[in-house]
Write the structure tokens for this entry.
Amino acid sequence: MALRINTFSNQSGGGNAFYKAVTHPLIAEKARNLVVHLQKAGPVAIYDPANQLESYAEFFPLADVEIAGLFVQDVDHIGRVFRNHAAQPVTLLKNCECKSILVASFDAAKVVDHIKHIMPANTPWFSFDALRLPDEMLSDRRNYLANINFATNYAFFRDQDGQHTRVVTANYWSTYGASAPRALCYLIDSKGMKLAEWQEPLPGAGASITFDSAEIRQRFNLPEFTGQLFIHILGAAGHDVVKYALDTYGDDKGVLSCTHDANAWPSDQYAGLPAPMEDEQVFLWVQNSHPSEIPAGAIGLNFMGNDDIKKLDKAIPPYGSYKLNVTELLPNAKWPQQIEFQAGKHVVRPRYEIESSNGHTRISHPNVERSDLKPDKRLGDLGDLLGKLHIVPAPILPLDRFTNWALPTPMSTALSHLPVKALIYDARGNQVKEHKFGNLKRSDSVAINANELLEGIKLEGGYGHMELIYDFAAGHEVDGWLHALFRYKDKKSGHAAETSFGAHVFNTVLVYKNEPQSYAGKAPGLSTRLFLRVGPQPYDTMCHLIYPASLPWHTTSDTTLVLTSNKGQEVAKRAVRIPCSGSLLWRVSQMFTEDEIKSAGPHCYVIIRDTTCRLFGYHGLVSGDSAFSLDHMFGF
């Protein structure tokens, strides 16, 4: 029961703003009112010039609207069926016996100008413009469905049972020319009900932005809640994606985790959801991103490589949240088994929460499973040109303190085998170990313990990193979408953290299918601009920077760490050099002086800048010897 909606296209590299426009929390009531008007105004002729009617009806059904006929502009759409009505060319609209017309489009006045002469005389018409947000909320008022008008995202947000959340980002929109951007915030509880709605101006260009659940709960005098924070940047420029770091922290020191921003577009499937270890419970937070109910049986779980999907026999209300224990549907699930989430495009990237018997909890996220990929036979022949090709880099934290696991995760529905190997490097960039997984079947779930692999091997610097790459000696069925889950456990506190991410080609000037990927401009991406939020007291902030290279690149990086105040002003900087294929594990408290950090003020951050190479980074918070968090970083 997947939603028949068009959201994000990896081929075009962008999203469908119509989807965001009709699922925006502020327009749900307007959209339902439009349906009521159409019910009273029937029979209705529907003109659907941009093939948007079906997506609208997925959220706001037109079952009780009497339809006189369906008309289209594109000749390729003639014959398309909606509600038993085959689409006719719009040139026949003049012959339709109707009492009103729905122009299924925004900015409809321009559309109507083209068909006035063929509209039945004296027939009133309606359009999706009845759902428009106010003009003062738009960056581009001439084109309502411009992506920049819908710089939106959701965040898991909780302030309940002594657990809190904090969303941190920076005003990067003003660095692209936004003059007076504002944040529209819409807080929703687990039942999908609005708890609070507010707007606040963003600080100056580059200034930090923080939404803390404890502060917001106090500000609006709210009860405890778990739900979603919808964020819409009004007056945005440059980026239509709201990137952020999400910290989960608690009154209990055993509650600590961080995770990346949610992917702003829903997917049919998500993968990389782990099964629990013996002393754990894994909960999937199913958070409805839409103004329509998720019907019972519409979503489900299955083991990777097994088509037996166990459905959730429970409906989830519009914008509601449900905490699903994976063993509720898969009672025999056990680490390192991997689970697919059949989401049917009902949710943006979900979170999962792991509760351990020792009282520690952590949150992470599965990833979008691509349904548009097929194996790329050329990749196996490009080694001479692109070396290691796609690399998934991840930290190896100090072996004396942490246990380090890696679990390759299939992330494409077309992938039946995964030939992969792991290369392990010390901090100086020396390869010290290679491990071949072989050609894994889709149903295989094989985790490696790096500590065991490195038994008897000394890592120069005390730590290092791992790179998962394709093993073309084992197989050639690869698609450039290699992913893995990495898990870390502190031997002293028992706290754990995990992160997952996908592969990129790193640090080659040659380009293949938009790789090496660039955050700004076209490939190749050969520079670094990463955002590191600095946690408040009593937390320290750690960062693990990795210099992966598909082919040998500059001998060392030329990296600058810029401590930046909450107003976006430079306070202090440090220059560091990381060897090619090496890494640097550091803490803010050790890199900058106490006076510098104090001068930067609360909610400060560090920009990691390098114009000579692309680095990959992981960040986290450290709560003394009690807990730590870790996830990959973002840039802008």
In short: Residues 8-131 form a domain with the Rossmann fold fold (CATH 3.40.50).
